[in-house]
Inverse folding.
């Protein structure tokens, strides 16, 4: 027969426990807040622009809370597989007053060549050298460019529609990307005449918007701008 002391101890172990003790055990079993998984910034969705205004919004989002914005920031915001809007960004910078600074148009032309040629060969993800990805622009200058382009962008976006979409659908998208490459290659020549590179950039912008909006009419308008650029180049050469 068990002694009373041992029986009482066993009853205490098997009997109901105080509520405070159960709460302590439940609290101890809970994971620490820091142990919970967090979604990293790299898992956030890209902005997926479909118009000039959308592209400008993506650029603004990339610059939010920063004093300087790098090429890598803009690529991450738009998405490294969205080639038409990525080509459009340097073209828009060339159209803005930022192109008045000598060398800006040539740098933007280099970006257009590297991006568009990867679209021509059918790459699914963009690759750029680290040296270019780390190039930065001040947020103040970028904000001025976006502000300058906002009203014209709204006007041009309002004129778009799905017209002659077969002209800007695969595989013809690669043709327009190849045209962008050819135009961007001659950008340094046009930069010798102040602001003349804006004409080339306007054509590139129209081609990119045509691919985004599936508007073949815009692509044909871009060809008209190319003809104007060719006439201007011939006039300068002769």
């Amino acid at each position: 027969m068990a002694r009373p002391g041992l029986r009482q101890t066993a009853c205490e172990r098997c009997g109901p426990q105080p509520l405070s003790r159960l709460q302590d055990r439940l609290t101890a079993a809970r994971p620490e807040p820091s142990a919970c998984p967090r979604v990293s910034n790299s898992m956030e969705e890209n902005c997926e622009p479909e118009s000039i205004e959308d592209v400008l919004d993506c650029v603004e989002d990339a610059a939010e809370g920063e004093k300087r914005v790098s090429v890598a920031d803009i690529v991450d915001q738009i998405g490294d597989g969205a080639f038409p809007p990525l080509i459009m960004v340097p073209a828009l910078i060339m159209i803005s007053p930022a192109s008045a600074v000598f060398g800006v148009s040539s740098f933007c032309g280099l970006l257009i060549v590297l991006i568009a040629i990867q679209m021509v060969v059918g790459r699914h993800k963009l690759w750029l050298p680290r040296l270019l990805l780390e190039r930065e622009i001040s947020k103040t200058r970028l904000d001025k460019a976006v502000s300058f382009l906002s009203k014209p962008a709204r006007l041009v976006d309002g004129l778009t529609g799905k017209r002659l979409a077969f002209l800007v659908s695969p595989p013809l998208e690669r043709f327009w990307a190849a045209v962008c490459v050819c135009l961007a290659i001659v950008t340094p020549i046009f930069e010798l005449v102040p602001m003349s590179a804006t004409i080339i950039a306007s054509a590139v912008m129209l081609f990119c918007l045509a691919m985004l909006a599936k508007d073949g009419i815009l692509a044909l308008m871009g060809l008209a701008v190319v003809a104007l650029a060719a006439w201007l180049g011939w006039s300068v050469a002769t």
Residues 49-237 form one domain. The radius of gyration is 29 Å.
